[in-house]
Amino acid sequence: MILSPAERSYLYDSLAQSPPIRPDSRSDHQFRPLEAKTAFLPGSNGSARIRLMDGSECIISVKAKVVLASQESSLIECDIDIAGFRDDSNFVSNLKFYLTNLLLHNFPVRYLKLTSRYAFKLFLDCIVVSHSSYPLSLISLTSYLALKTTRLPLLVSDVNDEEIAEQPTFSDDWDNAKYIDDYLKEGETFEPPIFITLGVIGPNLIIDPSTEEEQVLENGLIISFYNNNVITPISNINLATNSNNSNFKGLNRTLITKGIALGNKYCPAIISALNTLIEQDDEEGTIF
Amino acid sequence: MNVSEVISITKPVGLDNDIDSDVEMSDSENQAQDSFKQSIVTPGELVTDDPIWMKGHGTYFLEDRTFSSVAGNISRVNRLLSVIPLKGRYQPETGDHIVGRITEVGNKRWKVDIGTKQDAVLMLGSVNLPGGVLRRKSESDELQMRNFLKEGDLLNAEVQTIFNNGIASLHTRSLKYGKLRNGMFLKVPSSLVIKSKNHSYDLPGNVSIVLGVNGYIWLYKTSTGINSATNTSVTSNTNMFRASVDTTGSYAIGQGSVSITRLEEESSWEIYSDKNDPNISNSVRSNITRYNNVLRAMSFCELGITEQRIIMGYEASLSYSNIGSLIDKESMESICQDIINNEKMRG
After folding, report:
1. Residue ranges per domain, chain A?
2. Domain A18-280 belongs to what topology?
3. pLDDT of B46-83, one tens digit each?
4. Does B7 touch chain A (CB under 8 A)?
5. Which of A49, A54, A117, B33 is the most buried (most CB within 10 A)?
């Protein structure tokens, strides 16, 4: 996407005001409205779909497989497919790395263990049907919904198989399947980690920049959030991936701390909105 | 903290279930007669089985019967039968005031994206060159075409002709056309823009708009001259009048149109400048975003866009103190409902 020099400078000036005047007049901490649906794919353990007003859309399916834990390097594997990009392109492999890395380090993997030898392995398959702005936060919010609604079949065989080797067997009744949340101890809640993107412009930080805004940003921040806290990785990135951004420059340290504060302040609202949606979502209702 | 201030996540809303989806397909002959009476057809629907009709755009012919190939209205001109699509890409017509973006600089011409199937062309000879109309275009102009307009630049222009291969040719040989500055761009489906005599308006709140017939819209700060007495006027019929007032400071009788000498003055390098007005106030900037949201709401609700409706939408949006909430689906629908109600009341 190319902007004319006049558009670019108008947009930059608007966003550098305090408070910033965004093209769709969102406030600096406001996300674009989302439409989401969970648990609609019959063949997978968990699924979710998020759609934005501009037509950006992401679908994630979570499938579980019983594996010998000793033979697997990790119990979560992500695959990302983005329409219009080669699977081995930098763009896709970066996104894949971000998501895999975040989940590997911040996921209660111990609850995926079935017996001393067997474990569930989760496969996240993600399709970005269409996107306009940098799709990481879209993918990560969808993965949150998909993982939250993932149901794993109930183990009926013995948990202790150290002495007698036994293949795990599961209840045939899908109604007995449990959410990952149900495996957790009292007082713990299962809230997968999420990413949010922040745009840096002048003295301001803006949450969830749109495509036009990405074109004039001075820098971009990716912030991850887990267990009510901003966690690492926190990284900076040029969000305008499909054009050269002439405004791009170094990042002021104070803005990183400001970004962390912003994340700590507003991410709980995002998590609670996602949780509310899952509570209200029903089997009925339209997918489209 | 209120969650809705940060993010709104809703469930997808499908079509209303009370619409009966089982439409009877018309097979028999008397039904075919009926379907001809109703003016809206869908792709593959039988329009007529009478072979005397000539087949126009949007139709196809199989076994002596004419079917529609698009969803749209049947139009009959003498014996020519065509279907005009309800939606689709913009089809240029001579005289349309459009907004476009340069995509390519070529041999004595620019390619312009105006939302048509093929990019339009803007010939070097169809623009005002710095130095006035009386100047001939020379080789040096061909060499410095990127200094006038380059890839990504936005301009408003008029469709001059349509070549027989369907490509539109544009011109900017008037002071109301040319490069766009001091504002922001948005797109709506071209089918929503209702053609009228004039497509550039001054709106309340010191904002002006170029409502391109192709659905490309430019919202910008109303340019203020020395004499800004006419600033608040809404109708754009006074554009010409103001153009003559602005530069001279007083209205001279008989100066309704731009004189050649003035055109020369105006046609300096200024007209191709990329610099915005340095004094755009925050209130103008937020008014522009308000109009942007109103237009997006109208495009979301598929409401035809006219000057009157934009103003009514703007007035309806004033009741939202937080403009950011206008991007929610409910607010967009309520804005459009307000516009429709308002229109009904005025009759």
Report:
1. 18-280
2. Ribosomal Protein S5; domain 2 (3.30.230)
3. 888 888 888 888 999 988 889 999 999 898 888 899 99
4. yes
5. A49
